[in-house]
Amino acid sequence: MLKKFFILCSGADHVLLDSCAPGEQNKYAGIGATVFFTALMAFIASGYALYTVFDSIPMAIGFGFVWGLLIFNLDRFIVSTIKKRDNFLDEFLQALPRLILAVIIAVVISKPLELKIFEKEIDRVLLEQKNDLTLANQNQIADQFTPAVAALDTEIENLKSEVVTKETEVNALYDIYITEAEGTSGTGKLGKGPVYKEKREKHDAALAELQQLKQTNSEKIAALELEKASLASDYETRVSETQPIIDNFDGLMARIDALETLPWLPSFFIFLLFLAIETTPIFAKLISPKGEYDLKLADAEGELKSWTTQKANQRKNLIDADNVINDKVYGDLTEEDELYNYKKKMARDLMQKQQDAFYKRQSKLL
């Protein structure tokens, strides 16, 4: 039962193959088994690839099954259409387009399985890429907020500088009226005279201005700090909103790109493995000598070709003979007086009817 199934997969004529030796049947059963298992691997590979895209097991199985059937049909067609010829070069040229198609199929099948085999290494590469993308994303978003934050910091520093400048002025006035009282500067008189009082009043007024300035600038600085906190909150919100996009950066294309960054040799050998599997049935047909099945198939096709050629020639001869007979019959008829007189009478009647009809129409117009 299994042998018949694999023979069916090979695309061979099972009726013709049943009349061949068991060895010939085993050869085509092996070719059919290769076709079947290649389609099975295509189903698994495409199912995994589509699962990484749709993240749905039913959809992956459904599309994978359709893809497996497509590969099965292509391989079966490729193998069944290669005919054994007397010249190997002719056979190779006949199989060359099919070999190119087999290479394409091998690439399509092997790539998803490479992604699964090197999944851990690909995940590591994707993690590094995600980290780089996260840092780049944070820096790009920060660049959007940096000018506003820098402007707020500058304004805060200006407000603080105003307070420091005023404090320096107040301290200087304090030193002036203290040294005046000590008599070490100003008038040089010890004691709290009128000049001392004047300088003390000037210091006290500046001190009051300093207290007012501190209160005003503190309120302004608090408001600016709230703006900075709001910008920081907006920055965190933007980062949290865009982070899921980076976290989902593990689709099929991203995994293929990550696979390309890994050493090429293991992937190349996996590709060669599937290329060998895919091209084995074709090369088996090319390098194997003409077998019993090939001879019987060529004989059956030759017999059919001879029969169709014979039928075509018979139809041509039949038409040629019929044309000769028709020419002779019509030639004999042209010499019969009875047929001539009958046709002359019918022509006269037809001309009379045409003339009567023409007369009636002209009379109505007049």
Automatic annotation (TrEMBL):
Keywords from the UniProt entry: Coiled coil, Membrane, Transmembrane, Transmembrane helix
Segments passing through the bilayer: 28-51, 57-74, 95-113
Coiled coil: 196-227
Name listed for the protein in its UniProt record: DUF4407 domain-containing protein
